[in-house]
Automatic annotation (TrEMBL), chain B:
<keyword id="KW-0813">Transport</keyword>
<dbReference type="InterPro" id="IPR003593">
    <property type="entry name" value="AAA+_ATPase"/>
</dbReference>
<dbReference type="Pfam" id="PF08352">
    <property type="entry name" value="oligo_HPY"/>
</dbReference>
<dbReference type="InterPro" id="IPR017871">
    <property type="entry name" value="ABC_transporter-like_CS"/>
</dbReference>
<dbReference type="GO" id="GO:0005524">
    <property type="term" value="F:ATP binding"/>
</dbReference>
<comment type="similarity">
    <text>Belongs to the ABC transporter superfamily.</text>
</comment>
<dbReference type="Pfam" id="PF00005">
    <property type="entry name" value="ABC_tran"/>
</dbReference>
<keyword id="KW-0067">ATP-binding</keyword>
<feature type="domain" description="ABC transporter">
    <location>
        <begin position="6"/>
        <end position="253"/>
    </location>
</feature>
<dbReference type="InterPro" id="IPR013563">
    <property type="entry name" value="Oligopep_ABC_C"/>
</dbReference>
<keyword id="KW-0547">Nucleotide-binding</keyword>
<dbReference type="InterPro" id="IPR027417">
    <property type="entry name" value="P-loop_NTPase"/>
</dbReference>
<dbReference type="InterPro" id="IPR003439">
    <property type="entry name" value="ABC_transporter-like_ATP-bd"/>
</dbReference>
<protein>
    <submittedName>
        <fullName>ABC transporter ATP-binding protein</fullName>
    </submittedName>
</protein>
<dbReference type="InterPro" id="IPR050319">
    <property type="entry name" value="ABC_transp_ATP-bind"/>
</dbReference>
Length: 562, 264
């Protein structure tokens, strides 16, 4: 977690503690009874009455301290009740499901639309104004939102692996409930409670201010109510009559907001990773002219990428160098976690923060690390097509295929609708999809067809280099073959260079000219694909190749076909 | 003739996306397994093979049909009685990253079936012994792994923990739903070998659900090929691989052949 987050949480805690101490000890320390006149009315602050007195000569500081007890009590009590009731109903609705859930959800919808002011008026008529009426009404308004959020959490836990596994082990509902559901849901009760206190204190204040609280009990809201109705604004009195309770409300709400912020990040650690990326400065790009003469399209020179781990930086890519020539297909093979995908994201300069990158990457002889944002944007999608891992599941479900493909063109070119449509048809034909599919939505396509669309998207701007990251993962064997053959065909037809990343050696061998084998971020072996697979003596390469399950028993002797 | 361990008679299942939109997942599937047999259930995604596993394990209910496990009709059983049968039918899941609770230590995870089924209740020492034995059977050194959390383990190690959890109560049948598909190629055969070892030592049967025929060659006794919720071909593993009859099976095998020969 970031340091500032901790400080924010701590500040919230200090503010809240201060207010709590004031509420508990304040009335004991202050020598005046808040409910009795203790001096002349409308006194401005003086040594005897630090905040002055009100219209009835009651000490305002004493009122404030007693009011703190009421306001905090109402806030915390309603939040506890709302979270408890909402939590119980939410968990049950999520877990039981079916008709019960539907009924509960409809009730929640209705409760969420209840306007709390009229509700308070109606309820107060029946129950009489008072602290408990306030707690009742605030809880009544608040539980529904909590129930809905906690139900969502329950639903997501209900379908996770551990719960399914426990079911197949013959677990009873009771067991699943206390062992898997409750431990998963309770952590979100705490931030829910904190935001609940916040809302409840604000609601109490506004209800009391409007005179709908208990007129005989002092609370911050009721102090404001009396101040307003007894013309505090007409004199100077508002400065010590209105401002202090206002400040108190702000402090408590702020304290709980800050604590809520801290807890939110604590229980959702991913939030801490979001930060605004710095703009890349325009600078002179370092070039290596001799690359183009040698036909080198991409050259990666001692690339190292490290991520922080337990106080230190751990390299996920360690001193990797390689080059891709024009028209060449390089395969990068390794197990998950060997750093293959990190190389791909480094090339298009899209490493996840807080990565530390060193080494140089030249594309067409230009150092990509020196590119500014616009330069990178031009390179991505136009010069380098990127087929990201599992990208076929990332197609926008509500936008037609042709629109999504046109979007890829429009990022780089301004063309008329007609020309764009022609481009879309052309590229779809290239990837073996009938042109009618351009009017389809992603859910109408099979996995293999979606992957073809992704390939079309990568090719649509005629890039010089295509990076394909695990393009066959998640597809059936038959479709895998089709995709591999398609990629090979397109690469030959268009003469593009390609980096093909996969852990699936058979498919890699069939597409690539050269292979680079990686393990734990390091390069362990490199060479022409066919020779490497048959002749390499590197023990790790052998393990990878020999562990490929085969349909037909392997032949004892291996000939090198050339 | 040895008795059938599992017999499935005309299993049917449809999903309803809306009352009018019905997708048939299984239409009239019947097959049987003998004790100690390893059966491979093969098909492309959407063929309904996972659904069969989920129905047998009780995660889904069939629309109609019978499931006889050692002569007991599972579908007509009361939930309470059905749960007791979990001792004999365990499941291994596809995703090793998802299937283990991140809040539980490895020994708690492996002991969970014992806990749920109240095996050796109160006898903590005996339970620990069973857990250690299960971990050893999947080549995980108990002393090193017992007190770790899943996130400290690699994908292959996690899947072996999942396998140990299935082994721990010595079930008669393990439903393995694509247990290797999320693993790196080099780890797939390892897992298969561990499963095969338990079959040889304890006579555990497997219903091995996969789309990877190559993996079944040395592992499965018999193959069942599923397409669009129907069985299109069954037979001894090598027979099916060497002489596929149904065109669909032929395509499946051809696809692998092309890959193996690096695109031909």
């Amino acid at each position: 977690m970031r340091k500032t987050t901790k400080w924010i949480g701590l500040t919230g805690l200090v503010l809240f503690s201060a207010m709590l101490i004031f509420a508990i000890f304040g009335p004991m320390m202050i020598p005046y009874d808040a409910y009795k006149a203790s001096g002349p009315p409308f006194q401005s602050p003086n040594l005897e009455h630090l905040l002055g007195t009100n219209d009835m000569g009651q000490d305002l500081l004493a009122e404030l301290a007693v009011g703190a007890r009421t306001s905090l009590f109402i806030g915390i009590a309603s939040a506890i009740l709302a979270v408890f009731i909402g939590g119980l109903i939410g968990v049950l609705a999520g877990y039981i499901g079916g008709r019960f859930e539907t009924v509960v959800l409809r009730i929640i919808d209705i409760v969420l639309t209840l306007p709390f002011l009229p509700l308070m008026i109606v309820v107060a008529v029946y129950m009489g104004a008072g602290i408990f009426t306030l707690v009742f009404v605030i809880t009544l308004v608040m539980w529904a939102g909590k129930a809905r959020q906690i139900r969502a959490q329950t639903l997501s836990i209900k379908h996770t692996g551990p719960v399914l596994a426990a079911k197949t082990m013959g677990a009873s509902h009771f067991y699943i409930f206390y062992k898997h559901i409750i431990p998963g849901v309770v952590p979100i009760f705490i931030p829910q409670f904190v935001t609940g206190v916040n809302a409840a204190i604000l609601m109490e204040s506004s209800l009391s201010f409007l005179g709908m609280g208990d007129p005989l009990t002092k609370s911050w809201g009721s102090i404001l109510f009396y101040a307003n109705s007894r013309s505090a604004f007409l004199t100077e009195a508002w400065m010590w009559w209105i401002i202090p309770p206002g400040v108190c409300i702000v402090i408590v709400v702020l304290a709980f907001s800050l604590m809520g912020y801290y807890l939110e990040e604590r229980f959702n650690p991913r939030l801490g990773d979001y930060s605004v990326r710095e703009k890349r400065k325009k600078q002179l790009v370092k070039t290596k002219e001799h690359h183009s003469s040698k036909g080198v399209l991409l050259s990666v020179e001692s690339l190292t990428v490290a991520y922080p781990k337990s106080g230190d930086y751990r390299s996920v890519v360690d001193d990797i160098s390689f080059a891709v020539k024009n028209g060449e297909v390089l395969g990068i093979v390794g197990e998950s976690g060997s750093g293959k995908s990190t190389i791909a994201t480094a090339i298009i300069q899209q490493l996840k923060r807080p990565a530390k990158e060193s080494g140089e990457i030249y594309f067409e002889g230009n150092l990509v690390q020196h590119f500014d944002d616009e330069g990178l944007r031009q390179m991505r999608g136009k010069e380098i097509g990127y087929i990201a891992q599992a990208a076929m599941n990332a197609l926008n479900p509500v936008i037609r295929i042709d629109k999504q493909l046109q979007e890829a063109i429009r990022a780089h070119y301004q063309l008329s609708a007609k020309v764009m449509d022609e481009r879309v048809v052309e590229v779809l034909q290239k990837v073996g999809l009938d042109e009618k599919w351009r009017f389809a939505y992603p859910h109408e396509l099979s996995g293999g067809m979606k992957q073809r669309v992704i390939i079309a998207m990568a090719l649509i701007n005629k890039p010089k280099l295509v990076i394909a990251d695990e393009p066959t993962t998640g597809l059936d064997a038959i479709v895998q073959v089709e995709i591999v053959q398609l990629l090979r065909k397109l690469q030959k037809e268009l003469g593009i260079s390609m980096i093909y990343i996969s852990h699936d050696l058979p498919s890699v061998l069939s597409v690539t000219d050269r292979l680079m084998i990686m393990k734990e971020g390091r390069k362990v072996d490199e060479g022409p694909s066919v020779e490497l697979s048959k002749l390499s003596t590197n023990p790790y390469t052998r393990v990878l190749i020999d562990s490929i399950p085969t349909l037909y028993p392997k032949k004892e002797t291996v000939e090198v076909s050339r | 003739m040895s008795a059938d361990l599992l017999r499935i008679n005309s299993l049917k299942k449809s999903f309803y996306r809306s009352p009018s939109l019905q997708t048939k997942v299984l239409s009239d599937v019947s097959f049987s397994m003998k004790e100690g047999e390893i059966v491979g259930l093969i098909g492309a995604s959407g063929a309904g093979k996972s659904t069969i596993g989920r129905i047998i394990s009780g995660l889904e209910t069939a629309d109609s049909g019978e499931i006889l496990f050692v002569g007991n009709e599972l579908t007509k059983m009361k939930a309470k009685v059905r749960r007791q049968l979990a001792k004999d039918i365990q499941m291994v899941f596809q995703d090793p990253y998802e299937a283990l609770s991140s809040r539980m230590k490895i020994h708690e995870i492996v002991a969970e079936p014992l806990h749920i089924l109240q095996i050796e209740k109160g006898n903590l020492e005996q339970r620990t012994q069973l857990v250690k034995e299960a971990l050893r059977s999947v080549n995980l050194e108990p002393d090193y792994y017992m007190n770790r959390y899943p996130h400290e383990l690699s994908g292959g190690e996690r899947q072996r923990v999942g396998l140990a959890r299935a082994f721990v109560c010595k079930p008669k049948l393990i439903l393995a739903d694509e247990p290797t598909s999320m693993l790196d190629t080099s780890l797939r055969l390892d897992l298969i070998r561990l499963m095969k070892k338990m079959n040889e030592q304890e006579g555990t049967s497997y219903l091995f659900i996969t789309h990877d025929i190559a993996l079944t060659r040395d592992f499965c006794d018999r193959l069942i090929v599923l397409k669009n919720g129907e069985i299109v071909e069954t037979g001894e593993t090598l027979d099916v691989i060497m002489n596929p009859v149904h065109p669909y099976t032929k395509t499946l095998i051809e696809a692998l052949f092309i890959l193996e020969n690096h695109g031909g």
